[in-house]
Amino acid sequence: QVHLVEAGGGSVQAGGSLRRSCAASGYIYSGYCLGWFRQSPGKGREGVASIASYGTVNHADSVKGRFTIFKDIARSVLYLEMKSLKPEDTAMYFCAAEKSIGYCPLSANFNYWGQGTQVTVSS
After folding, report:
1. Which residue among 35, 59, 63, 83 is least enclosed by CB atoms within 10 Å?
2. What residues contact 2, with CB distance under 8 A and at least 6 apart?
C-alpha cells in the first residue's frame, strides 16, 4: 500500500507564492505517474499538473506559467511550486500516484491519493 502525505498548504494573498510537497511511504518516484489535483466547493475535481516517470510534465492551461510540478527522486518527494496565486486558485489540493512508466496525462487513472490540504488565496 502506498501512502502519500502532503504538506505546505496555507493562506496567502493574491500574487503570493506557496510550495506544496507530497512524500510517499515507499520509493514510488521512479515507475510512477504523479499528479496534483484540486477541488473547490461546488466544483468538480480539476487536474492541475502531472509528471511522468521519465520526467515529462503537463500543466493545466489555468495554471500554465504560474505553477510548476517537479520531483526529488532521491528524497521521494513530489512538489508543486505555485506563484502569482489568484483567488480562483483557492481549493483543496491533492497529490496522486499511479504505477505507470508511460505517458502521464492529467486524465490518468490515479490509484493512490494524499489526504489533501487547503490553499486559500485572498484578494
Report:
1. 83
2. 24, 25, 26, 28, 97, 111, 112
Instruction: For 5-24, write each residue's pLDDT tens digit.
Output: 998 879 999 999 999 999 98
pLDDT in tens, 34-70: 999 999 988 899 999 999 999 999 999 999 999 999 9
Tell me the three cell numbers of residue 87: 483567488
Write the CA distances from 56 to 70, 102, 118, integer angstroms: 10, 10, 27
Q: Are strands 4-7 and 18-24 parallel, antiparallel or unpaired?
A: antiparallel
What residue type is assigned to position 113 of the chain? W
Residue 66 CA to residue 85 CA, distance in Å, equals 8
**Residues in the chain, how many?**
123
C-alpha span between 117 and 70 (Å, rounded): 18
Q: Is residue 87 helix, strand or coil?
A: helix
Buried b (16+ CB within 10 A) or exposed e, 23-55: bbeeebbeebbbbbbbebeeeeeebbbbbbbee
